[in-house]
Design goal:
CATH class of the largest domain: Alpha Beta
Distance between the termini: 94 Å
Number of helices: 14
CATH superfamily of the largest domain: Transglutaminase-like
Radius of gyration: 42 Å
CATH architecture of the largest domain: Alpha-Beta Complex
Helix content: 40-55%
CATH topology of the largest domain: Coagulation Factor XIII, Chain A, domain 2
Number of strands: 19
Shape: flat
Strand content: 15-25%
């Protein structure tokens, strides 16, 4: 007990000594300031970094397995896209089935049907919207499963016809396409595929309709009808999706660019382009393909560039109906003809560019220039022949008035045009006359001039820049016996030109170094004379 009390007394003495020394720590022990700074300067302890693991090299078997895995994934990707393309074509073909057309006409009110047929570019959105709402409200629920479905597969058609629009967006889009095509509108079924998504969410369907020169984008499932694809992009589309469109002819088109979709990855772009080209080439000769709809354009101006139909009043100056042409329909009281019965007329010079010549004794069927219009076709033909004979117009001839062009020999000279050039447009070597050789190069004329060899410039096309058309020439045409000499001289001319170019370049380099040296000397002189 005495020892404990003595220790307590020592502690009290020490605390008291600290207070007596003027310590301001309120009874706390005094610490050395140097020790505090040393503790603050001490760096924190860092854990030692774990040793880096060496990258193990793959064995030959592992490399081969990885290659096979990549190959398998690529094949699975292409198989999914191929199935998507085949399914989209099948669904588009079902839209042209007669049963689908009749059912679509039955579910669309007569007033909406008439408005859609007479729609123009200004009111096309309202007409398409009315048809879309009619298709969404009644989706052919009255058809029995045993009804004859024409060319479409029974299971696919029944599933599309019996499912309400709010549960199956594909049925609504297909029915809308069938209704629009029945109204005479050029409608395409559009689908998207996201290969990275599984299940039913991988693909979706909507449609595009063209009225005149305006496109309308319709999402039948969501009840949206817009004039810009960007409005669909914000709500519907996936950035990694394939987006394809199928028209009434069964042709497939990659329209992902219109929707800002990333589309095919790099490894399958070439494969996709080849697949679309093969499918579209086979669609024209496919025996089971549904026939294209016989939809007429909705305006008179649309007949001017329509691919299937034409009006006599809308034919261009170079177009003419064949003698065997028969009207296939009427539009506002005017007979409508098939586009295949319209022939394109060309001048003699144009037919020569197509490797054909006009037969002797042929009368022109049209003319460029002059005034030959007359209500009587016989009088009009006489006016055309008279204007062409007197040189007031250039005659136009049909393909049946021509024959294959046989290149004439150059014994009497080169076949030049009015400007003295030999026309070999687009670099077609078949147009080189026999007995002549085409020596290419813009400096070939210099070689011919140095040898005094007869030649003729070659016209290969025209360049159109800033509203001006300028001829584009490439090389000259020489006789076969002079070709070797011209080629050797051309090599010598090019070698001389190359040496001259190098000499000029060296001279310019020497001049620039001299200018730099004079500048440096002048700077030193000025510094010595006037100071820094």
């Amino acid at each position: 007990m005495e020892q404990a009390s003595s220790s307590d007394d020592e502690d009290n003495v020490n605390w008291a000594a600290g207070d007596a020394a003027g310590d301001s720590s309120d009874g706390e022990p005094v610490l050395d300031e140097e020790d505090d700074e040393a503790e603050e300067r001490a760096p924190p302890l860092q854990e030692p970094a774990p040793p880096r693991k060496k990258k193990r090299r793959r064995s030959k078997q592992e490399t081969e397995a990885a290659r096979l895995k990549t190959r398998r994934r690529k094949l699975e990707h292409e198989a999914a896209v191929a199935y998507f393309l085949a399914r989209l074509r099948l669904l588009s073909r079902w839209c042209d089935d007669p049963v689908a057309r009749d059912a679509a006409e039955a579910c669309v009110p007569g007033r909406a049907w008439r408005n859609m047929r007479e729609a123009t570019e200004g009111d096309c959105v309202g007409a398409v919207t009315a048809v879309m709402h009619a298709c969404r409200s009644t989706l052919l629920r009255g058809l029995k499963p045993g009804t004859k479905l024409g060319l479409a597969p029974a299971s696919l058609a029944r599933a599309a016809l019996a499912t309400p629009a709010e549960k199956d967006e594909g049925a609504a889009a297909m029915l809308l396409v069938a209704a629009l095509r029945g109204c005479g509108v050029d409608a395409r079924l559009v689908g998207q595929l996201d290969v990275h998504t599984k299940g039913k969410a991988r693909g979706e369907l909507w449609c595009e309709a063209r009225v005149g020169r305006r496109f309308v984008f319709v999402d039948a499932a969501a009840g949206t009808c817009v004039l810009s694809s960007e409005q669909l992009t914000r709500t519907r589309l996936k950035p990694r999706a394939y987006i394809m469109a199928c028209d009434a002819n069964g042709s497939l088109y990659d329209v992902g660019v219109n929707y800002n979709a990333r589309g095919a990855p790099a490894f399958s772009r070439e494969w996709l382009a080849d697949a679309l080209r093969d499918i579209n080439a086979a669609s024209s000769s496919n025996p089971w393909r549904a026939p294209a709809p016989d939809a007429l354009p909705t305006s008179i101006g649309a007949f001017r560039t329509h691919h299937a139909f034409a009006l006599r009043s809308q034919l261009l100056r170079r177009e003419r109906l064949k003698g065997s042409a028969q009207p296939v329909a009427t539009f506002r009281g005017e007979p409508v003809f098939a586009r295949k019965d319209v022939e394109t007329l060309r001048t003699k010079a144009d037919w020569a560019r197509h490797h054909r010549r006009v037969k002797d004794g042929q009368q022109p069927r049209g003319a460029l220039g002059g005034s030959q219009e007359d209500a009587d076709p016989i009088v009009q033909a006489g006016n055309v022949a008279l204007d062409v004979a007197e040189g007031r117009a250039v005659g136009l001839y049909g393909e049946d008035q021509t024959e294959p062009l046989v290149q004439a020999s150059i014994d009497e000279g080169f076949p030049t045009n009015e400007q003295g050039d030999v026309e070999i447009l687009n670099g077609d070597a078949r147009r080189v006359p026999p007995g002549a050789t085409w020596v290419k190069g813009h400096d070939a004329s210099k070689a011919c001039a140095s040898l005094s060899v007869e030649c003729a410039p070659v016209l290969v096309g025209f360049d159109r820049r800033r509203g001006c058309t300028r001829p584009r020439k490439d090389g000259v045409l020489v006789r076969d016996e002079d070709a070797d000499k011209v080629v050797e001289e051309l090599r010598r001319v090019r070698a001389v030109a190359k040496r001259k170019s190098i000499s000029q370049k060296r001279s310019k380099v020497h001049q620039r170094w001299a200018v730099l040296a004079r500048g440096l000397l002048s700077r030193d002189v000025l510094r010595e004379r006037y100071g820094a």
